[in-house]
Amino acid sequence: MAEIERPQIYLITPPAFEPEAFAPRLAAVLDAHPVACLRLTMATRDEDRVARAADELREIAHARDVPLVIEAHLGLVERLGLDGVHLTDGARNVRKVRTALGADAIVGAYCGASRHDGLNAGEAGADYIAFGPIGATGLGDGTLAERDLFEWWSEVIEIPVVAEGALDEELIANLSPVVDFFAIGEEIWRTDDACATLARLIAAMG
Fold first, then answer.
1. CB-based contacts of 74: which residues, under 8 Å, 6+ apart?
2. Closest by CA position to 198, among listed 161, 160, 162, 167
3. How many Å apart are CA 97 and CA 91, to the nearest integer?
């Protein structure tokens, strides 16, 4: 039997960090584990702070051949030499963003637990669809992206699918056969040893 490919890691930054302090932590994780993509996600709307962080992280990521996408700040992608954008509003702006950034940019869409939004985003030109949250969080309305959504998607749709939001080892073990990427962020950054925590999560993929 052919070996089933394990999902890849899609790393997300913490929502708030000082670039100079975070840089060595990020570099250590990227050096310790294979990471397919890095997403800069910051809670601040201060574009100067976001741009400073993007400059710092781009050097680290690109030196290791890891693409860097940014959440929401479309205007910074070309200005700062980033690889694409992650949209958080489902399919709404995918087509417009794809047109603006061109065919080579990465355009991803977070679609909550909505199969309908995911299909529309894919048809509009998204490179991947993210569903979540997987585990319980205090955010949103409590709706979770269940395994059957990923199972259906992986059987029917060719566009890569990302699972994100409150992941743990048990959830990762359960979803590994039906997802292409796990988006991991606070799950590791809030721990003392991000590299070791990520190693445990990767091991749970089997």
1. 85, 97, 100, 101
2. 167
3. 10
User: Rounded mean pLDDT of the chain?
Assistant: 95
| Both tokens assigned to 142 | 């409590």
What are the start-end ranges of the E strands in 72-111? 84-87, 106-110
Quote the pTM value.
0.96
Residues 164, 24: Cα–Cα separation, whole Å: 24
In three-state secondary structure terms, 52 is helix
Tens digit of each residue's pLDDT (9 = 90 or more) over 82-106: 999 999 999 999 999 999 999 999 9
Instruction: Tell me: pLDDT of 144 over 70.
Output: yes
Alpha carbons 113 and 133: distance in angstroms, whole number: 8
The alpha carbon torsion through 157, 158, 163, 168 (nearest 10 deg) reads 100
Could you tell me how far CA 33 lies from the centroid of its own chain? 16
Q: What tokens appear for 165 in the block?
A: 């939001």
